[in-house]
Amino acid sequence: MSTISRRRLITTGLATAAGVTGLGVAAKLARRYGLIPPDSGVLYGAGETLTYAAHRTVTRHSMAREFSPSEISKDPFANEVAPLGPEFQRLQQGAFSDWRLTVDGMAARPASFSLAELSSFPRSTQITFIACEEGWSYIAEWSGVPLSHILDRVGALPQVRYVVYRSFQPDWWESIDMVDALHPQTLLTLGMNGGELPVGFGGPLRLRVPRQLGYKSVKYITRLTLTDSLKGLGKGLGSASPEGGYAWYAGI
Amino acid sequence: MGVPAEFEMPGQTGARARAMPRTAERLRHSALVRVTHWLTALSFLALLVTGVEILISHPRFYWGETGNVNMHPLFTLHIPSSRDTVPTGYGYVLPDQNGWSRYLHFEAAWLAVLTGFVYLAFGFFNGHFRRNLIPARSQLSPKALARAIAGHLRFKRPGEEEAWSYNTLQRLTYLLVIFVLFPLIIWTGLAMSPAFEGAFPWAVIALGGRQSARTLHFFVSALLVLFLFVHIFMVWFAGFRRRMRAMITGRPGGDTTRSAAILAALKERP
């Protein structure tokens, strides 16, 4: 019995050492290749980290599914938004001619764009679905400026790792990694179903991130901040969502 | 004839266990089956509770690619909702617990899937499925099946031999859960992930669309809950304490001399 327990002790010890070393190496590699989400430390962060790491390994370059014009939902649902207030009404009455999109942070040429300027940039159109975490969804045609074009235009520095985006509604702020920020389907959306983007659906400017749930497609975008770290922002969890209990990465 | 896996000795598996004289105590369930069973039970419970939480934020179901409150549902569960945007007919809105429910749902899903992989690898590698789950051909004859079903319908209490081996209906049910319902619940769940759909669109199209996947996810989970209730009832019916002890410690306990006699008889059986 004693020889068995000694053998067992040695093998268990070796296995534990290998396991701990393996985990350490894995954690280091995962950090290096951007496989750890900013909310990895929350109560259920382990599962979230596995999901994010798996997606960034397997679905990094995949495209959101596109649909045919006949599949566009005739009855899209705008979802409710908190009252936008008198300042928004003033902007709306002026046909949003005073609306500005500010781009700051780690950019060689920080800039501020009007909607007219944004409209003059190269445009991209896609027919994709938007799905709410509650379970409902609809398909629409979205058109706008790829976020990657804006990043090019302002001269995003090579060390940028996240794009933080803020809404006219101060409680809404989100961020995405560069995989999604540079993804060709990530759009600063100005139009929907052939017309202007209605206010209910996020007009005049919504960031569409079609490979993630609807809560990452924030409405009424006013500011983009390019950063290499999310630590100093809010509670350091990456965006308002994890502060409200929701996962930062919503690709599921 | 080798010693079946249910007669495995503690700390020994495979050829060595077979070569050993049968002096050591036999285990009803191997350690791996017991550990994976309880990890699956834990994750299933978490998935069920959080799944219900997520469901009540939109207790309406659709068929096809899309669905929302402006569209006609396939069917509606007549329960209150945790969101005021859903017309339920109830004058109140339930507390919204989706945030942690979603976090935990996906964490528990990882636990269930990883446990499932370990269990599958073990089951194929060491013959657990072949020995303990796949019924003998003779058990599948219409006559034998009819007798097994009739016995269940008459609520005939299982005999001692069933403390050491699964009966036919039990084997078929476990095979259905392991190889049909679990893969389906994972597939329909993944089909709701927008990133997964981008990478593997055919996996969503094959189910009839994202909302169809959601509806199927609900039906499959209902079947799994039905299985859970019947499973717990059968454990209680067959003798709760012994069956629980067997799944926790591996040893059913009870009348050991009688057990030994039946085991000897089982071993003689061709």
Short description:
By secondary structure, chain A is α+β, with helices and mostly antiparallel strands.
Give the percentage of residues in beta strands of chain B.
Answer: under 5%
Helicity level of chain B, as a percent range? 55-70%
> Which class do the helix and strand fractions of chain B yield?
mainly alpha
Q: Given this structure, which CATH class of chain A is correct?
A: Alpha Beta
Summing up helix and strand content along with how strands pair, one would put the structural category of chain A as alpha+beta
Largest interface: A-B, 45 and 40 residues
Number of strands of chain B: 2
The N- to C-terminal Cα distance of chain B equals 9 Å
| CATH A-level architecture of chain A | Alpha-Beta Complex
Helix content of chain A: 25-40%
The helix/strand series of chain B, from N terminus to C terminus, equals: HHEEHHHHHHHH
How many helices of chain B in DSSP terms?
10
- How far the N terminus sits from the C terminus of chain A, by CA atoms, comes to 49 Å
Order of helices and strands of chain A: HHHEEHEEHEEHEEEEH
Kindly report the spatial arrangement of strands forming the biggest sheet of chain B. 1-2
Count of helical regions of chain A? 7
The largest sheet of chain B, given as strand count, sense and whether it forms a barrel, is: 2 strands, antiparallel
Shape of chain A: elongated
Would you tell me which CATH topology of chain A applies? Sulfite Oxidase, Chain A, domain 2
Domain count of chain A: the total is 1
